[in-house]
Amino acid sequence: MSDAVLKVQSLTKKIGNATIVDNVSFEIKNNEIFGLLGPNGAGKTTIIRMITGLINRTGGSVMINGSDLDKDFEGAMNQLGAIVENPEFYKYMTGRKNILHYARMSPNDISNERIEEVIKLVKLEHAIDKKVKTYSLGMRQRLGVAQAILHKPSLLIFDEPTNGLDPQGIREFRDHLKLLASEGVGILISSHLLSEMQLMCDSFAVIEKGKLIHTKEHMIDEKAETIHQVSFAVNDGELANKILQEQFAEIPILSFDASTISVTATREQTARINRLLNGNELDVYEIGITRKSLEDKFFEITEQEMRESV
Ligand SMILES: Nc1ncnc2c1ncn2[C@@H]1O[C@H](COP(=O)(O)OP(=O)(O)O)[C@@H](O)[C@H]1O
Ligand SMILES: [Mg+2]
Q: Degrees (nearest 5) of the Cα angle 157, 161, 166?
């Protein structure tokens, strides 16, 4: 048994002659916040609309917590909470009335205790008896989250959830997502904003022109193969340069002076360089590591992709 709450395989959407989504596959585990990252028009909303059953697929399969969308649509939908378009509310009703109305329309039995629990979870207890028209965008977003999680879905999907939110609202939303994920929910969010995904997601996929061009677990990972820029503060930079050139020639040296030497190296290589310098009677005072941001990686990936497609 796989522990994926969402498993998307070979998802494809064609409209007329155009292939809008092209053979996209990925998985989301519970506890995981997974980002679909890509520029406007990349196909993110189309992917999400297919996963949530709002539009037909041309090809591919979707499994939500073990339920196949084709074989058990209701079972799959029961595991899902989603905000695809901006959440719609009755603005002249209170938040609570909106939630109660929604709960009554749900095919699931939703207890009053659950409603109270969810209102607390999204921190709307002080505003829940006020009319929605008095709510800020962030509060409406939270009411939308409350609605989406009422039936305790194992998968949550949000399409560009932070559009229009101010930095404070974005931060609060992020905290909510992390809380929900920590309770075992798998979360899919889409965004065209790299910096935001970086703060919000555990893993991400880059979508461009309908194709998934890259997936990566843990954007800033500590895995051995990740290359970082590493600088060593030493008592003799020139000697360090000489030693590395002679004894560890595959390490690219970026720069050196009397007291530092900078290279690009993996985690393992960093340890080896340190041992090598120490073994040659050099003093290493400090090792500084500059990690690449997701933004750097995103541009690296898309630039590489562009070069390859020329
Ligand atoms: N119903 C449709 N008919 C024709 N083209 C569409 C339709 N829906 C989306 N598209 C096109 O598919 C592409 C991807 O759209 P979309 O999924 O909305 O991208 P994103 O959400 O990443 O901005 C765009 O080029 C868009 O114009
Ligand atoms: Mg979109």
A: 155
Contact 191, 35 (CB under 8 A): yes
Supply the residue whose CA is at minimum distance from atom 27 of ligand 1: 41
Question: At a CB cut-off of 8 Å and minimum separation 6, what does 98 contact?
Answer: 89, 90, 132, 143, 147
Architecture of domain 4-217 in this structure: 3-Layer(aba) Sandwich (3.40)
Q: What fold characterizes domain 228-290? A: Alpha-Beta Plaits (3.30.70)
At 208-250, the pLDDT tens digits run: 899 987 766 544 444 545 677 899 999 999 999 999 999 999 8
Q: Which ligand is in closest contact with the Cα of 20?
A: 1
| 45 close to ligand 1 (CB < 6 Angstrom) | yes
Is the distance from the beta carbon of residue 37 to the nearest atom of ligand 1 less than 6 Å? Answer: no
Pairing of strands 260-265, 67-68: unpaired
- Mean pLDDT over 11-38 rounds to 94
Are 169 and 137 spatial neighbours (Cβ–Cβ below 8 Å)?
A: yes
The pLDDT of residue 218 is: 44
